[in-house]
Write a structure and sequence with these properties.
By secondary structure, this protein is an alpha/beta fold. Helices cover 32% and strands 18% of the residues. A 7-stranded mixed sheet has the order 3-2-1-4-5-7-6, sandwiched between helices. It has a domain of 148 residues: Vaccinia Virus protein VP39 (Rossmann fold, 3-Layer(aba) Sandwich). It catalyses: L-lysyl-[protein] + 3 S-adenosyl-L-methionine = N(6),N(6),N(6)-trimethyl-L-lysyl-[protein] + 3 S-adenosyl-L-homocysteine + 3 H(+). It is found in: Cytoplasm. Its main location: cytoplasm.
């Protein structure tokens, strides 16, 4: 009689050890989250998904952009973050401040943020819920997921639809001309940093007198 176990592929002891280590690390991370009174809004609470071309800002950059957005939006202001979840998360850390914010994002993991999450696909720039009224945001912060004119142009349609005027765009330095062409924004002196270094030089662009110069 043949041994039934023979046709079950066996993992090498090395692979098994690596897997166990991985699961342990994951459990520890999860455990840490709960023990620290885990903040769902902190950067990194949702991990980057490179296939979606996601790269989180460094903590410092996210704070700086969030602060700029609050100042630009003014008291009781409304802020929209398009494909810029790390700025959204920083804004949420400043709870009790006098502003409101929503996140337009393709990655449905961000739906944990409830009502403020709006599913967004730049290929359908105006496919937005009815309650997002035109020109109802004091400032729109956008970080188009891809460095292509097509992506910028389509995201620009959404930005122009939502903003009352102020725009803060984060994208590659190579997009300077297209950014001026599609949104009338100029490069700031402020250099945004990411939590991992990107190959492309990254810059911020605005169309108003900002604190980023």
């Amino acid at each position: 009689k043949m041994d039934d176990d023979d046709d079950i592929p066996q993992l090498s002891s090395h692979t098994l050890a690596a897997l166990q280590e991985f699961y342990l690390e994951q459990q520890q991370r999860e455990g840490m989250k709960t023990s620290q009174g885990f903040n769902q809004y902190s950067i990194g609470s949702i991990e980057e998904d490179w296939q979606l071309s996601q790269f989180w800002y460094s903590d410092e950059t996210a704070s700086c952009l969030a602060k700029e957005a609050v100042l630009a939006a003014g008291k009781g202001g409304r802020i929209a973050c398009i494909s810029a979840p790390s700025v959204y998360q920083k804004l949420k850390e400043q709870d009790g401040e006098d502003f409101s914010v929503c996140i337009l994002e393709y990655d449905r993991r961000f739906s944990v943020y409830g009502e403020e999450f709006i599913f967004y696909d730049y290929n359908h720039p105006l496919d937005l819920p009815e309650n997002l009224l035109p020109h109802s945001f004091d400032i729109v912060i956008a970080d188009p997921p891809y460095l292509s004119e097509e992506c910028l142009q389509k995201t620009a349609e959404t930005i122009k639809y939502l903003t009352k005027g102020k725009i803060l765009l984060c994208t590659g330095a190579v997009m300077e001309e297209q950014a001026a062409k599609h949104l009338g924004v100029k490069m700031c002196k402020f250099i945004p940093k990411h939590s991992r270094n990107l190959a492309n030089e990254f810059r911020c662009y605005v169309n108003y007198a900002s604190g980023l110069d």
